[in-house]
Amino acid sequence: MAHMGDVLAGIHSTWEFDSDSVLIRFERGIRTPKLFHVLGERRIPYEALSAVELSPGGKRGTVVLRAVPRAGADPLLEAAEGQLKEGNDPYRLVLPAERETLAEYYATELRAVLGPYAAEPAERHLVAAPPPPLSFKAYDGKASFDGRAVSFRWFWTGASSAKWKAGDQSFPVDELDGVDWRSPEVAGGHLRLRVRGTEAPGEVDRDPATVVFGLGYGLVHESLPFAASVLEAVRAAEPAPARETAPATAPAAAGPPARPDPADIAERIRHLGELHEAGLLTDDEFTEKKAELLAEL
Quick one: which of 154, 147, 131 has its CA closest to 255? Predict the structure, then answer.
């Protein structure tokens, strides 16, 4: 591949070429997509690519060099399932038109180092997802992922009575089959965990394994890297026969559990009382949930 350390600088990102991979560094400018701010940088092995394209840019005076990843190679794109807008595509390098000759040179060099299985779907993830811990606020709750389990904490102002009755949730990754992400930029956006052995309710606002997006909540730049990180952990936790070629994943170091905030517990009990008074919780349900919260202190 050309020369190790060669750099091709474009608009919003810079590609640095090594012998076996390209390191994409994203700028943090005001006009740079926020998703790129979260990603920071990504190392893409050449074996993760299926093709390289060069085409005129959407704006006059630009060209676009795009690396096309193999299906299944990148958990970020697997989670996105084609929902990313063109400007949020992390595999696009936009360049001034006067650099087209240079872009053609690197496109040719990249095509020369594509792996022997470039035309085939990848059997495992070859590009790393953003590492945990990760979290974001959706419309009806806060989602957190520490590398071992996904947790949903409901907001009393947005969560349905069904979710309040179910209580805050925690899902170990080894109990999940996958993640469904529907972009917050379209109606009905949500992040749903596919829990092994269970059938999800049809309505996402009643499913305790789902957080629902709304206007200004669960933005793409926060929720998609989260979904990708969970998906990568789920794949790594699959039984050995199902992932014989999957990369080894070092276990996450377990830290001391965070001590609950008494003020937060008191506020949540107050909200339970409001639901009880409104008839959304029975006496027994209220007593049980209150005891669970007090036990956290």
Answer: 147
